[in-house]
Amino acid sequence: MTAKPSLLIIGNSNVGKSSITRLLLPSPKKFKGKVGKQPGSTLMIKSIEFPQMPYKIVDLPGFGYMNSSSRRREEHIKKQLVIHIEKHHDEYFFSLVVLNFLRIEDELKKYHLESDTTIPLTFELIKFLKEFEIPLLVILNKIDKVSVFDKKRIISLLINSAMDYGLNLVQLFDKKVRNYEEIPYLEFSAIKRTNLDKLKRAINLSFQKVG
Ligand SMILES: Nc1nc2c(ncn2[C@@H]2O[C@H](COP(=O)(O)OP(=O)(O)OP(=O)(O)O)[C@@H](O)[C@H]2O)c(=O)[nH]1
Ligand SMILES: [Mg+2]
């Protein structure tokens, strides 16, 4: 491989993708990030590259919530993400599926617990990345905003729901030997930098496998 491999950062709008991207850069000050969501339906996918960084980062624009974008546009954005990944999956050595901790419960309620015909987007995304054999880490971001009690409850709910879709979520670095079928997750806070060391370690381990 001549070009640098890429790290994919994917998730809904406002979950903290750009904040996490910033934490991974050698000189975050040079990174302007994306200023808000463009109301247009064109999806800008652009990678971030630094000479000191052995990989590129693709911080995908978030596909949003119904109130901020129309359903049709959202479908359009999703379709473009799918096309992008289908076309570029070879370039990705690792992906971070970022979730906003505060929204997990609502998503599961709406699309899993109270509906038999839908699949939560998070699980759809995980299955999709797995299909293309892109290793992934689920980041449960904004952990600073929940109590220890809620944290445990929501994580259990997430793990149990994922199981219903054949997805086996396990805490990152919980076990020595990791089965390919297991999907690691990491409690995280971009604001407090909680578990940033673990995140970097996971990325580096994955990078070493391709480098
Ligand atoms: N409390 C808390 N807030 C966070 C955390 N991470 C990000 N935020 C805030 O969440 C908001 C959205 O963060 P971004 O990094 O812009 O989110 P994004 O996923 O890149 O959003 P889009 O580009 O619109 O898809 C900002 O106000 C951040 O400061 C976190 O760990 N804890
Ligand atoms: Mg962003």
Task: Indicate the topology.
Elements: E1 6-10, H1 17-24, E2 47-48, E3 56-59, H2 71-88, E4 92-100, H3 101-113, H4 121-131, E5 136-141, H5 148-164, E6 168-171, E7 182-187, H6 196-210
Parallel strand pairs: 1-3, 1-4, 4-5, 5-7, 6-7
Antiparallel strand pairs: 2-3
Helix pairs in contact: 3-5
The protein binds guanosine-5'-triphosphate and magnesium ion.
The site of guanosine-5'-triphosphate (GTP) has 19 residues, from helix 1.
CATH architecture: 3-Layer(aba) Sandwich
By DSSP (H or I, 4+ residues per run), the number of helices equals 6
Q: Assign the CATH superfamily.
A: P-loop containing nucleotide triphosphate hydrolases
What is the chain-wise order of helices and strands?
EHEEHEHHEHEEH
**Uncertain stretches of 5 or more adjacent residues:** 35-41
- CATH topology (fold) name: Rossmann fold
Structure explained in plain terms:
The longest helix is centred in the middle third of the chain and has 18 residues, at 71-88. It is built from six helices and seven strands; from the N terminus they run βαββαβααβαββα. Strand 2 (47-48) and strand 3 form a beta hairpin. By secondary structure, the chain is an alpha/beta fold. 39% of the residues lie in helices and 17% in strands. It has a single domain (6-210), classed as P-loop containing nucleotide triphosphate hydrolases (Rossmann fold, 3-Layer(aba) Sandwich). 31% of the residues are buried. A seven-stranded mixed sheet has the order 2-3-1-4-5-7-6, with helices on both faces. Bound molecules: guanosine-5'-triphosphate and magnesium ion.
